Amino acid sequence: MEKFSLTLYLEINKSHYVFFVGESKDQNHFKIIYHLEIPLKGIESNRISNLDKAFHLIKENVYIIEQKFNHTFKEIVLILENFNLSFINLSGYKKLNGSQVLKENITYILNVLKSYIDKIESKKTVLHIFNSKFQLDGKKIDNLPVGLFGDFYSHELSFALIDTNDHKNLYSIFDKCNLRIRKTLLKSFVKGANLSDNNINIDTFFDIKIYDTSSKIFYFENNSLKFEQDFTFGYNIILRDISKITSLKINNVKSILNKLEFNKEIFKDDDFIEELFFKDETYRKIKKKLIYDIILARISEIFTLMISKNINLNYYKKTTKVIFFELNNQFQIKGLGEMYKNIFSMNGAFEVKFFDNSSPLSMLNTANKLVHYGWKKEAIPVAQTKKSLISRFFEAIFG
Questions:
Q1: pTM
Q2: Which run of H or of E encompasses 24?
Q3: What's the pLDDT band for 357 if we cut at 50, 70, 90?
Q4: Lowest model confidence (mean pLDDT) among 18-32, 46-60, 88-102
Q5: Pairwise CA distance, residues 129 & 397, whole Å
Q6: Residue 380 and residue 226: Cα distance in Å, rounded?
Q7: CA distance linking residue 349 with residue 322, whole number of Å
Q8: In this structure, what are the phi and psi dihedrals at residue 24, rounded to the nearest 5 degrees?
Q9: What is the pLDDT at residue 395?
Q10: What distance in Å separates the CA atoms of residue 276 and residue 274, rounded to the nearest whole number?
Q11: Which residues fall within 8 angstroms of residue 203, CB to CB, at 6 or more apart?
Q12: Is the pLDDT of residue 375 over 50?
């Protein structure tokens, strides 16, 4: 009989705790056998606000899952999205004067950079460290250049950090649930790895997801997560503006957007919104083109706020023209994707790629690989061990 192992995952996103049970035999045989979403409690404004409430909700549902499978879980994998995160990118240098790059050179650089992070971010904990860039005599090197000769070596590390109090609270919750956190993964990292694996020739890109009331952008460079930013607006600004300008009720606006196709080429001057959409309202002549123009104006505003005038992206915009765009499955306007592509790619600004690889199975399959096999650019394993930073780094690189 083939033996399959069970792994318990918990994603904490903007609105829910999402429990998954994954079943796997090896890297090529993974499936989700259980999925449970619970409304978020105990976490507000991207931090743990009520430890007891969060603990009891998680404990109760872990117990339900264990009873269902008649299995006691000893470990859990966390996938985090709803926390205050920060990112720091630092480079260290070593003069070689024609000698080889040695492990000791890299050890020195890592010690200096990690010590600096510990000093300036004493209230934060490192979740991920990525080898984002190697350069030898000013030339980019794809892999760690141990053994190569040169005069000047630089090594860039990208650090992803979480507030230490939140980190401690998470460990406290699962410790009281008798669960060891095997690995903590940022959802942006999982999604970036997923996109990279499915687009072999693309390792540097932006990713944008627009939700109902919020939006997020993250930046992946050389297969390393280097930056992410949240915004407090989403598709709600489109709905609000249409409702305000046309005096239509929000529910009627949603009905119009879900059922009509908005394509500039098919509109005529006498093309009005049909009377059947005016539920509980007096019919008025409202041109479809007006709705289209409002949507287009709001998309242009989203592009301006997230990309073109976002000073946090000034450097990153120079390195890539690729944007992966994930549309909200619950807010599908016919023709919306084409509008986004037209605005975001105007004047050759970006190449927009829509994708559908963020399904729970695709994401969990990627997370499973990250847990068991690591990531090509992650400097150290995230699993908690008593090994030193440097020994973990070289174990990750050289095995």
A1: 0.88
A2: strand 16-26
A3: low
A4: 18-32
A5: 13
A6: 16
A7: 9
A8: -145, 145
A9: 52
A10: 5
A11: 196, 220, 221, 222, 223
A12: yes
Comparing CA positions, the residue from 272, 225, 269, 316 lying closest to residue 308 is 316
* Token digits of residue 269: 């001057």
Position 270 scores a pLDDT of 78
Position 359 pLDDT exceeds 50: yes
Q: Looking at residue 70, what is its pLDDT?
A: 94
Compute the average pLDDT of residues 47-74.
95
SS (H, E, C) 290-345: HHHHHHHHHHHHHHHHHHHCCHHHCCHHHCCCEEEEECCCCCCCECHHHHHHHHHC
| Token code pair at residue 147 | 């053994």
What CA–CA distance (Å, rounded) separates 46 from 49?
Answer: 9
**Which residue type, as a one-letter code, is found at position 110?**
L
The two structure tokens encoding residue 114: 């990690």
Q: At CA 359, angle to CA 333 and CA 189, rounded to 5?
A: 110
Neighbouring CB atoms inside 10 A of 126's CB total: 18
Distance CA 219, CA 236 (A): 24
* The token pair that represents 100 in the structure block: 């080889």
Listed range (100-109, 147-156, 228-237, 292-301) with the worst mean pLDDT: 100-109
Measured in residues, the chain has a length of: 399
Q: How many CB atoms lie within 10 A of CB 60?
A: 12
Count of CB atoms within 10 A of residue 323's CB?
23
